Amino acid sequence: MKKKLRVTFNSPLVLGFAMACAAVTLLGSLTGQSSTALLFSTHTASLSDPLMYLRLFTHVLGHSGLAHLVSNMAYILLLGPAMEEKYGWKNLLMVILVTAFVTGLVHNLLFPRTILLGASGVVFAFILLTSFTEFREGEIPLTFILVAAIYLGQQLWDGLTVRDNVSNLSHIIGGLVGSGAGYLLNIKKVRRL
């Protein structure tokens, strides 16, 4: 007798993050992007503005439109479940929060007159975190070196040569956070064995 196929909620953190991003993007469309500007994009504001501190984290939920959302969620939904299974939802949540905070803070300090929104820093954190899946102490995975060279190298090149609305710095910072997290999470695991 064949078992019935059923849909499972296999990756609660990643699916919840993707649904939150979709809801925030929809809300932005319905409010003419005023909700996105107020709550889901980071920009320099008065230190006495409590929303400035909130936006340092929530800017990763905001997206400029459907195309921006889909391009980020494709990677999040592809890479995230495996990372959530390997590292656990708490560790992956920490990667998302650290990536959001560091990218938001650095952006506000270096580019005070522009806004930042979107989960692409988180995407790059996941990409580099993924390349640490076969880590062993005393070794650097060749996959990590190649992924870092390809993805971060492209962002450095684009940052120097292309003028667009893409925050290459956020991608680089996300990649660095993912690399650091991959190393730290795996070194702890290896030392426990």
Keywords, please?
Rhomboid-like fold; mainly alpha; 193 residues
Reported for the largest beta sheet, the result is: none
Low-confidence stretches: none
What is the CA–CA distance across the termini?
Answer: 41 Å
Total domain count: 1
Mean pLDDT: 88
CATH superfamily: Rhomboid-like
DSSP helix count? 8
The SS-based structural class is: mainly alpha
Tell me the name of the CATH class.
Mainly Alpha
CATH architecture: Up-down Bundle
Query: What is the ordering of alpha helices and beta strands?
Result: HHHHHHHH
What's the β-strand tally? 0
- Please tell me what the overall shape is: globular
Estimate the helix proportion, in percent.
55-70%
